Amino acid sequence: MPSKLKLKGEWNELKGKLKAKYGELTDDDLVYAEGQEDQLLGKLQKRTGETQENLKKILFSEK
């Protein structure tokens, strides 16, 4: 997995990408706190039904 700094630095862009792909996500679902990546992934997995691996690809993939 690439840097967690990517997640921190591009979070607003990633939130938009996730909302576009998964319309059922709310702002509350997408609250990110530094160091809480596992909790975020768990919450997203529960709401979207995606695997954590697929979500990691979306969140941590290189551009």
What proportion of the residues form beta strands (DSSP E)?
Answer: under 5%
Number of strands: 0
Low-confidence region ranges:
none
Helix and strand sequence: HHHH
Distance between the termini: 13 Å
Class computed from helices, strands and strand pairing = mainly alpha
Can you give a write-up of this model?
The protein has one domain (4-60). The radius of gyration is 11 Å and the shape is globular. The two termini are 13 Å apart. The chain is mainly α and 63 residues long. The chain has helices at residues 4-9, 11-21, 37-48, 52-60.
Keyphrases for this structure?
single chain; mainly alpha
In brief, what are we looking at here?
By secondary structure, this protein is mostly helical. 60% of the residues lie in helices and 0% in strands.
List the helices and strands and how they pair.
Layout: H1 4-9, H2 11-21, H3 37-48, H4 52-60
Family: Belongs to the UPF0337 (CsbD) family.
Protein name: CsbD-like domain-containing protein
InterPro entries: CsbD, UPF0337_stress_rsp, YjbJ_sf
